[in-house]
Write a structure and sequence with these properties.
mainly alpha, two-stranded antiparallel ribbon, two-stranded antiparallel sheet, 8% strand
Length: 320
């Protein structure tokens, strides 16, 4: 009986191993040749999820596991690839790790500061030449197609031309009686809105709040403007110090009335549009609500209540 049990266990392991190996090399579910785009900066997990959603593989989880076991360790390439009909998971991984790219892309996410755009372009092995760190706010966040061997300067100029074109178009259709008087001021305020909220639905309200403060001559008191002179827009990685809140410089809106001297990141089109079409609101204050959004208030008394709620949430989380 023991021998039968051992044999059964061994057989089960062999069958399981056979299934695991065959699942990597057998044909996949693609019914026809299909183009597939790998965004710049993608991880194995995000690509696997996209492959499953697109019907190229049956299971993202098993694709990731098998890729780690059977893969050659080469990095995933960004670009557009053609996945052939019935391609096995092994074939798909080999394609997106290879050089048979139909189109290549580089992506600048909304709110990426110029120092990080510079680092991304300099790290891209498909591009050539050198660039300087571009002016903050001069680049329109988007996905750009690039050619192998193209100069980094040429790509950067396209990104900057896209921002100039977009800003001019949006400025031409702006609401009347805005507190921002020039496209450059709109861009600066949009960069603050971009950094202050991760919720698209809040952008116009945050823009409306800061517009109210500008009209009334109230300090904007936007935390990202404290951080920018310290890190040039990169994450601070710690709490803001009291000395930094009180620092006097050209960006810190806790020690000055009005806008900083320039943008603190590269804002996306939606944040620029929010500044040029802000929500009609009487809000003057906001504080995090624990869900990634904010609680807004028009009076200091209500704001203080909201702040206490936020402190309670942070205590429950163990932040302090």
């Amino acid at each position: 009986m023991i021998r039968r049990g051992v044999l059964a266990a061994v057989l089960a392991v062999v069958l399981l191993l056979g299934w695991f190996v065959s699942g990597w090399y057998t044909s996949g579910p693609l019914a026809k040749d299909t183009p597939f785009i790998v965004p710049d900066g993608s991880s194995l997990a995000s690509v696997a999820a996209k492959l499953e959603k697109g019907g190229a593989i049956r299971s993202a989880s098993f694709f990731k596991l098998r890729a780690r076991v059977f893969g050659v360790g080469a990095p995933i390439k960004a670009g557009e690839f053609m996945l052939p009909k019935g391609a096995s998971p092994a074939k798909i991984l080999s394609i997106i790790q290879g050089d048979e790219v139909l189109r290549r892309f580089v992506t600048v996410p909304e709110g990426m500061p110029s120092i990080m755009v510079y680092e991304r372009l300099m790290a891209n092995p498909q591009l050539t030449g050198s660039i300087e760190v571009p002016a903050e706010g001069s680049i329109l966040p988007d996905t750009y197609e690039i050619d192998r061997g193209e100069s980094r300067q040429a790509v950067l100029l396209r990104m900057q031309a896209a921002m100039q074109r977009t800003l001019a178009e949006l400025w031409a259709g702006r609401d009347p009686n805005l507190p921002v008087r020039t496209p450059e001021e709109a861009l600066t305020l949009a960069s603050i809105v971009e950094k202050e909220t991760g919720k698209p639905s809040e952008r116009t309200v945050v823009a409306g709040l800061y517009s109210n403060r500008l009209r009334q001559g109230i300090m904007l008191q936007a935390d990202p403007t404290i951080i920018y002179p310290i890190t040039k827009g990169k994450p601070l990685g710690r709490r803001i110090r009291q000395s930094e809140i009180q620092a006097v410089n050209d960006y810190n809106t806790y020690s000055m009335i009005g806008l900083p001297k320039g943008p603190i990141t590269n804002p996306g089109k939606d944040s620029i549009a929010a500044v040029l079409h802000p929500a009609q609101t009487d809000a003057l204050y906001m504080v995090a609500d624990g869900t990634g959004g904010h609680q807004f208030a028009s009076t200091l008394e209500q704001h203080n209540v909201n702040v206490e709620k936020w402190y309670t949430i942070r205590k429950e989380r163990g932040d302090f």
